[in-house]
Specification:
The protein has 5 helices and 12 strands. The mean pLDDT is about 90.
């Protein structure tokens, strides 16, 4: 069986983690051994679970960088068939780790913002690393909070406006369509 490398991407509140959880569930139903990872800095809903905004969750190992992902997968006593990584953009070197594991024949599933809420830099380094390897890219639009159109961008309305990564939810971020992202309305 050929390995999959699926990327679920888009703005905040677009259902990326929900789709990631569905991919994990499908592999579990198939009888595959799935190992899940999330960034140690993301404690919004749970410290040790990948959790959607609606509360669906799965156990996960928290990591600070991609080298920990490789190390943890290598330590497993049974064969790892699939690796899921939530919030890939928050984990330095996670992109390189995902590519290495994929080249070993492991299915990779990731969810991640594709762009910063600040239009410069344009894309997160981790996403630039994984996108060329992806066998499927699912862009998950949200709903623009201003006009109700499909939203592909994340507008930062609070916190440190210069921080490229700042963990938060609706108190800091809103999904926006192209017009309302660039107009700042």
């Amino acid at each position: 069986m050929l390995s999959d490398f699926k990327v679920f991407t888009g703005p905040m509140f677009g259902g990326k983690t929900t789709r990631l959880l569905t991919a994990i569930e499908r592999d579990v139903i198939r009888g595959l051994n799935v190992v899940c990872f999330k960034p140690c800095i993301d404690v919004r809903y749970s410290r040790d679970k990948i959790t959607s905004h609606l509360g669906a969750s799965v156990d996960a190992i928290t990591v600070k960088d991609g080298t920990e992902i490789i190390k943890r997968v290598s330590e497993y006593k049974t064969k790892v068939d699939s690796v899921a990584i939530d919030e890939l953009f928050m984990i330095p070197m996670a992109g390189a780790a995902a590519v290495e594991l994929f080249r070993r024949g492991i299915n990779i599933y990731t969810s991640s913002l594709q762009l910063s809420s600040n239009p410069k830099p344009y894309a997160f380094d981790e996403m630039s690393t994984v996108l060329p390897w992806a066998t499927k890219i699912d862009v998950c639009p949200a709903i623009c909070t201003v006009c109700g159109a499909d939203a592909y961008y994340t507008y930062k309305k609070g916190g440190d406006l210069n921080a490229s990564v700042e963990v938060g939810g609706s108190e800091l971020y809103e999904p926006r369509c192209w017009e309302h992202f660039f107009s700042g309305c």
